[in-house]
Design goal:
Distance between the termini: 83 Å
Number of helices: 18
Helix content: 40-55%
Shape: flat
Strand content: 15-25%
Amino acid sequence: MLEGEGGKTVTGAQAEIERLASENSQRAAELAIVNEIIHSLARQRDFGQIVEAVGERAAAALAVRGMSISTVDQATGELTFHFWIDEGVRNYELEGIKLGDAVSAEILSTNRAVRIGTAGEAAARGTPFKIAGTESYLGVPISGGDRAIGVFALGTHEQHAYSDADERLVTTMASAMGVALENARLAARTRQRVAELAIVSEVNRAVGAQVSPEAVIELAGDRVRETFEADMAYVALLDESGNRIRFPYYSENGNRKPPASMAYGEGWTSQILQTGQPLLVSAGQEADKFETHLASTPPRSYLGVPIRVGEESIGVLAVANTHEEDAFDDADQSLLSTVAAGVGVAIQNAELYAETRRLLAESNQRVVELEIVTEVGRALAQQLSFGEVVEAVGDRTAAALGVLGLSISIVDPETDELTFYYWVDEGVRRSTMERVVLGDALSAEILRTNHSVRIGSAEEAAARGTPFKIGGTHSYVGAPIPAGGKAIGVFAIGTRERDAYGDSEERLLTTLAATMGVALQNARTFAEMERAKEAAEAANEVKSTFLASVSHELRTPLTSVLGFAKVIRRQLDERIVPHVDTADARTERAIDQVRDNIGVIVSEGERLTTLINNVLDLAKIEAGRFEWRMEPTSMAGVIDHALATTSGLFEAKGVALVREVADGLPEVIGDRDGLTQVVINLLSNAVKFTDEGSVTCRATRTDEGIAVSVIDTGIGIAPADQALVFQKFTQVGDTLTDKPHGTGLGLPICREIVERHGGRLWLESAPGRGSTFAFTLPLEPPGTGELRA
């Protein structure tokens, strides 16, 4: 029991309740202060307002005798005090000064609060108070991101004046201020970026509006000077001689009178022009190299960037400050470079403008030409018919040039006759093709020389010995239609006007004639390809039929040969050998030789049977006559069947056969017999070339579906031979000295079956390191989705 106020006794539980109530009341008061500060911060927009809001409300809420809010200069480590209360009174004289406070340095380096209860404690820890009479101190970091950017501190003459609650409250205030300061910094940076983008946008609008380069330079100079608050800004350009630098824009502390041009070679401006690289100078570095006649006072900060036209530096855009160090940074360099690029474009546009006006008349004609060529190109891309291309060329050319006569003709080299595929006479299209004997001297000349001909009058035509055959014609242009390096036809236009055609018409006709030559060549090539395709398909059909017929005819007698050979071997062992006296060594050798020969007949017959069966299977697959039974199939079951079938081969050679099949493999849609044949072929192939070690059959689930690998420890395959293993009737190795290991069709058949299932089959191997034949199968080959329904 405890003695309470007024002599009342209270239990321990009641005392705890009262203590908690007191703490809750204190927490409520703290929250009220913090909420008031946060609401106040929400209305502030810049650094000074934020510091004032926190300082005023904290001083009123905490009734402090001493308080300071400071930020650190990350470069120098000095503190700048923005808010200071001394003996309960706001001391404006101390604001703005820079100090080196050891306690503040500790708070900034650790980003943690420091609380000291007495001056003796401060001295003992090596951080004595600098203000006499201070006994209690509480300092907390003002955090910006993941580092301390300043210190919020309280101090008083009383000892042990600050508690955990005070530290918690001040820390919360400092955190709120840090967030507000960081937001203000970001907002200021955003406003700066907006201003920078406004400059770039304004300059680019001026460039896009074809404003004169002088106006763009003036605009760019004014805007960068205002944005960077620069004491000096200028634009320098090399003159046409490349020996002197002139200043179309210059501003220094309000003075807009540009200096006289100067020689190119020395100084920062020339350095930028020579290197083509920006120059950023801080703290007056190499100030002696600055062009002193440009400014009355050498700059303490300078930023200049090249103005480029193409890859050439033709000028400099620069800003400078004569009173501030480190005034510019990389972001300013990026902005200035962007503005300089706009100035360069404006100058380049101005240089091109005169050339553009000079070529304007020609460009109109070129536009017409390009329209015709583009339209004809589309016709050529969309269809292979020569006649349709001729129609497109003739119609578009006649409409564009307003010709009275136009013809497109092709020569028959055997008869020397011209066939006119397109003919316009007196502005009217003739609907039927005509064939005429090549008697036109102009067409004959064009075809013979493979060069165009242009004539401006009937008298000129007569004088050169090629008079016009159509009366009244004065102007003519004819261009050869080329194909295979020679002229095969003529594209010609004509009219009654004298000198009606110039270089542009001749160029257009030559281009269009070449296009028609390509179209005719394509049409001929296409026809030849179609004929070749039909011949190949017919030959393939004959080959497939021949293989099937021959294989069938061979298999029937071969079956009889194998049957009789096996009967003879059995009769030899069962009926003859027991009744023969084997005491005679020659008789025993003869029996062994007969038995061996019969064994060769059987083994070679079986190999030949396998070859015939493989040929038949391959022929059926290639001809599309193989009967695929696509159904849900377990690859684990397929592999187990193949392993059981080939186990005897492994036992005979003493090679280990390893099964690695993942559990729970999903079914695939496939032909079970075909897939079993693939695995058997790969296993048989592996054991043939593996004399010791093991062969592993592995199956796993992959992103592509199911992957099956047959991995052996055999002799391996050289890189040069790996591309040959999937070719028909091809075996790797010396087939002249080595006994063939197979038919050369097993792997090609495997690839055909796997690809028919929508999968792929490949090889990984190295000599002496074994081989891996692997294939993947999608769960459902294309076009088999209905089997899952």
